[in-house]
Amino acid sequence: MTWNAYNRRKEVLREMLAIADQRRDITITDLLDTVDGGREAYANETELLFDLQMSWFQRLSGQLDRLLIEGVDTPEIMAISAWVNAASEMPGARTLLDAEINNPALGKAFAKELTLLAASAGVPWNHPDLNGHGKRLQDSARESVVYAEVTEVEAPHSGSLLSKLRSRAA
pTM of the full predicted structure? Predict the structure, then answer.
């Protein structure tokens, strides 16, 4: 992937996340068709899902790091709080990923999320039910998360951005 393609893909992903945050009923397929350049940036739905999962994982990891450094609560409460905070910040991504929870292509990525949660809560890495602990933490977090209400906001249009870029290039 070229540097320009990479940057364009990240730009498209940001636009898609903004739309998903405002339209929680949107599907991955609809999202690819809604954003200008979506199909050019992502060959298929699975590619987009992998990038969404990576963005989510990075946000969750950042939340875990922040809360663990602050150390104001038990590791288990901090792991749950980190998931809740990340989900509140990325409600569209979380909704899209939850809709794909049984997608075998994402199985390994979802398992890594559970491992991260459990390990952050103090469960040893070699524990035989590490992911089970992570799942219980995730379930607790799901019960606690409160998503902001969706307001009617016009979705960003990449066409206008492309127009600006074309005019600048000219």
Answer: 0.83
Rounded to a whole number of angstroms, the distance between the first and last alpha carbons of the chain is: 25
Grouping H, G, I as helix, E, B as strand and the rest as coil, residue 154 is coil
CB 19 within 8 A of CB 35: yes
Question: Quick one: which H or E segment has residue 39?
Answer: helix 38-41
Whether 19 contacts 155, CB under 8 Å: yes
**Tens digit of pLDDT at every position of the chain (170 positions):** 788 888 899 999 999 999 999 998 999 999 999 999 999 999 999 999 999 999 999 999 999 999 988 888 899 999 999 999 999 999 999 999 999 999 999 999 999 999 999 999 999 999 999 999 999 999 999 998 887 776 654 444 444 454 444 444 44
Residue 169 half-sphere exposure, CB side, CA atoms within 13 Å?
6
CA distance 70 to 83: 16
